[in-house]
Amino acid sequence: MEIADYIVADDRQLTRQVLDGDTTAFEYLFDRYRDAIHRLFLQRTGSAEDADDLLQETFIKVYMNLHRYSPDYTFGQWLYTIARNTFIDYVRKRQDDLSIDEKFSSPASNTPTPEESVINAQRRLQIEHCIARLPENYRKLIRMRFFDEYSYEEIAVKLSLPLGTVKTQIHRARERMCRLIVENDT
Questions:
Q1: Which has more confidence, 36 or 107?
Q2: 79-94 pLDDT per residue, tens
């Protein structure tokens, strides 16, 4: 078979050729799906080495079980199912390798410590104090942008101001806030 024939052949044709003993056809199947499956594993594991291992294991399973492939499904769906099951096996194996202490240890708490809570409260008070010292129009802009999380466009509409004016005033308000915070710290 010519190279061009492999390139234009669909997945079903290539699987039939592999089953008839044509290993080159399997290389073309591998090349079609390798990058997508590798990306999938890389996203899930975060490790290029683990993704490479899982990719290799998946395609070995595909090759060994190609006789079970049913053309009722697309080859990509069938391959993805094998990849998903390979990943599930990988996760289970990793769980089995953990000690009993690691399996049942709780993750670190995201709640602040009492000291962090006090520091956060002090910062909040400092920021509120600085906001109170701003002119009214800057206070309103700071609250809308950073506390209420309005976009620049939404603020412009709500205050009936041009977008450029809103951006400039918010920039100036931030600069003044920074100066006030630095003055308070010194």
A1: 36
A2: 999 999 999 999 888 8
User: Cα torsion for 176, 179, 180, 183, to the nearest 10°?
Assistant: -160
Which burial class, exposed, middle or buried, applies to 173 when counting CB atoms under 10 A from its CB (0-12, 13-18, 19+)?
Answer: buried
Question: Taking a C-beta distance cutoff of 8 angstroms, is the pair 177, 142 a contact?
Answer: yes
The Cα-based distances of 95 to 68, 84, 90, 101, 140 in angstroms read: 30, 17, 9, 12, 52
Residues 47, 49, 55, 61, Cα dihedral to 10°:
-120
Task: Give the model confidence (pLDDT) of 90-125 as tens digits.
Answer: 988 887 766 666 655 555 667 777 777 787 788 888
Tokens of 170: 């918010």
d(CA 169, CA 145): 11
C-alpha to C-alpha distance for 56 and 74, rounded to whole angstroms:
21
- Burial class of 148 by CB neighbour count within 10 A (0 to 12, 13 to 18, 19+): exposed
Q: How many residues does the chain have?
A: 186
